[in-house]
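Hi V.,

Quick status before I head out on leave. The structure for the redesign project is tokenized and pasted below; the design run finished overnight.
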């Protein structure tokens, strides 16, 4: 994982969009019956785990003066909601044995659900950081956090209970999904991700704009619930 520049993330964003649709479909029925703000009271993560994720996603998609990053876009809250719901419990996944070390093409091979993977991996990473630097991950300088994330991605940091690369891959995918999914699912606060990649939102039609090639699209960003996202901020 190279340090992720704004330009590099924009290139990755187009590949991440299908994944965002796939994951958020797991919570579609829940989102119809309650807002993300209501669901937030029933999340999965502990305060310590949230601090870890805040520190991690802030390095994966950093913000700058002009564009909010994953931390400002509420990606930790998005992941928390997913882990508390069907995705976190692998409700639609085949989770019976045998559990063997498979190839990358064979997909997820662990007996742990995503929620269990997050909890176990975060505990292992915090132990690694305490042993190495005598601080938790979220108290490390940014460059050192990058070093840890590099090690997780490459698998050179060996965690006690789970494969480090498996966890990193899921964390990176979920971070992109939280940054680009509709705000009704708890992330993409104030449409930060959509504004960054130039997506104006799912309006019911763009008939009037189809033939206006090269002209800026000036209408405000909208989500599935309209111009105001569930965080209480306008688009």
């Amino acid at each position: 994982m190279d340090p992720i520049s704004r330009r590099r993330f924009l290139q990755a964003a187009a590949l991440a969009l299908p994944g965002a649709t796939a994951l958020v479909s797991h919570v579609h029925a829940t989102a119809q019956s309650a807002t993300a703000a209501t669901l937030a009271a029933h999340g999965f993560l502990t305060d310590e785990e949230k601090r870890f994720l805040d520190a991690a996603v802030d390095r994966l998609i950093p913000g700058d003066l002009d564009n909010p990053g994953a931390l400002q876009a509420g990606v930790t809250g998005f992941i928390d909601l997913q882990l508390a719901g069907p995705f976190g419990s692998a409700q639609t996944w085949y989770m019976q044995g045998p559990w063997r070390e498979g190839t990358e093409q064979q997909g997820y091979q662990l007996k742990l659900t995503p929620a269990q993977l997050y909890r176990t991996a975060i505990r292992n990473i915090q132990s690694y950081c305490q042993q190495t630097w005598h601080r938790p991950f979220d108290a490390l300088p940014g460059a050192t956090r990058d070093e840890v994330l590099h090690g997780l991605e490459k698998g050179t940091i060996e965690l006690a209970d789970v494969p480090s690369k498996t966890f990193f891959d899921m964390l990176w995918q979920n971070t992109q999904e939280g940054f680009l999914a509709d705000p009704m699912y708890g992330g993409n606060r104030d449409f930060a991700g959509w504004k960054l990649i130039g997506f104006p939102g799912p309006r019911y039609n763009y008939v009037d704009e189809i033939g206006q090639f090269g002209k800026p699209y000036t209408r405000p960003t909208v989500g599935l619930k309209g111009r105001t996202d569930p965080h209480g901020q306008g688009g």
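Above is the designed sequence. Residues 79 and 106 are 24 Å apart (CA to CA).

G. will cover questions while I'm gone.

Best,
W.
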